[in-house]
């Protein structure tokens, strides 16, 4: 299985801009630039997209972990915060923090944590990130 996205950029790194498009059409000439990445201009940036990918991947992986253990969640809501920091002449993604709010009837906290840690470690996005990964959760 392959998934594709396309980036088009025009101009310099600081003053130029670009757009991103995915085959699915979810992103369709979505703008990105220095200002959307390092300031607060409207548009997206690679770190935001990685955060969305990590939150989505982890949450789905946890749903599968729970299903295999005989539990059906009422809701799993994950926010991923991806950190970028200066490294040498460039930058690197240094950390992704997953903050999970979960409603899972009938599960004990220890069992939930075991399954959540397995999902955190084994979702494909976690495996590809060369960054510290942390997870916090609230189970209700």
TrEMBL record:
GO biological process per UniProt: response to oxidative stress
Listed SUPFAM superfamilies: OsmC-like
GO molecular function, one term: peroxidase activity
Residue numbers spanned by region Disordered: 1-23
Family matches, as InterPro entries: KH_dom-like_a/b (IPR015946), OsmC/Ohr_fam (IPR003718), OsmC/Ohrsf (IPR036102), OsmC_Ohr_Peroxiredoxin (IPR052707), Peroxiredoxin_OsmC (IPR019904)
Transmembrane segments: none
PANTHER family from the UniProt entry: OSMOTICALLY INDUCIBLE FAMILY PROTEIN
Protein name listed in UniProt: OsmC family peroxiredoxin
């Amino acid at each position: 299985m392959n998934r594709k996205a396309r980036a088009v950029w025009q101009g310099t790194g600081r003053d130029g801009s670009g757009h991103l498009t995915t085959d699915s059409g979810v992103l369709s000439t979505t703008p990105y630039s220095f200002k959307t990445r390092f300031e607060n201009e409207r548009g997206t940036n690679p770190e935001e997209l990685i955060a969305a990918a990590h939150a989505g991947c982890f949450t789905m992986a946890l749903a599968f972990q729970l299903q295999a253990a005989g539990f059906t969640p009422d809701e799993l809501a994950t926010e991923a915060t991806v950190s970028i920091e200066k490294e040498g002449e460039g930058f690197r993604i240094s950390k992704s923090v997953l903050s999970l709010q979960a409603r899972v009837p009938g599960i004990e906290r220890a069992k939930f944590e075991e399954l959540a840690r397995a999902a955190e470690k084994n979702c494909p996005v976690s495996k590809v990130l060369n960054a510290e990964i942390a997870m916090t959760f609230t189970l209700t």
